[in-house]
Amino acid sequence: MNKISIVGAGRVGESTAQTLAQQGMCDEVVLLDVREGAAAGAALDIRQSAPFFGFDVQVTGGSDPALLRDSELVIITAGSPRKPGMSRSDVLGINRAVIDSILDQVLEHAPDCLLLMVTNPVDVLTHHAWKRTGWERRRVFGQAGVLDASRMASFIAGETGISIKDIHTMVIGGHGDLMVPLTRFSTVNGVPATTFLDQDMIEHVNEKTRHGGAEVLALRQTSSAYNAPAAAITTMVDSIANNRRRVLPCVCILDGEYTQQDITAGVPAILGRNGIEQVVELPLDETEQSGFLASIESIRADLEQL
Length: 306
Hints:
Blueprint (H helix, E strand, L loop, with lengths): L2 E5 L3 H12 L5 E5 L5 H10 L2 H4 L4 E5 L10 E4 L15 H18 L4 E4 L4 H12 L6 E3 L2 H16 L6 E2 L2 E2 L7 E2 L5 E2 L2 E2 L6 H12 L1 H9 L6 H15 L4 E10 L5 E12 L2 E5 L6 H18 L3
Parallel strand pairs: 1-2, 1-4, 2-3, 4-5, 5-6
Antiparallel strand pairs: 7-10, 8-9, 10-11, 12-13, 13-14
Helix pairs in contact: 1-2, 1-9, 4-5, 5-10, 6-7, 6-9
């Protein structure tokens, strides 16, 4: 890609910019933030790391929305983070106002871009962004499942002692306490993960996965997670920028898939240069389907607050 812009120069945004630059995902990375100097300072700091990591990506930052011009991909991480004890839904009101302003800027300066939503509650705000832009659903999607699946993989590795390099997992539903870790669709180098996990281990892994972000927040107190989220975002960007067409769990707008209409949720999808190229429908069993529908209803309840 030529240009990727990240709106929000907080910890997630800055860490994402650093990783994208190090991995040479594009020619230019732009950081945009309303706080005067925050994005420019972060960009300068990243540029000064280039001699150590050997990258030539141009990294710039500022507060002028015109910096978004000609972006092929815009990643929105801006918003109020949750505090210990808060759910992702608790920040919906304040973050909706933040997102509205940003979307207007994107529509003006980068009307042809792909839009990757990260700000929480990401399922609800991805739907809101799709409605506000009026774009094709392939162009507007969110990051959550890649992060949740990585957390699930790390917990399986911890339970079994097996190398995490061989563990591949899948999580669907909303990015919240009702997300649905799919052990049945998770593997260890092609072998079903259930071969290595008994029922108690599965339940423990699933519970840890659902509350993985809250655990980080409770321990840190002053900051939610940002290293793993940035890595998850980079994984999605890599699939887009290099047109890898990987099957990744993304927040997608559903149009009949999983019997759902006009709703967003985390589901596996083929992600490539054109954005969401195909939503992949999994043959869910009764328990998985029940959990997915419960998660969908939670998202719909939040949408009614908009």
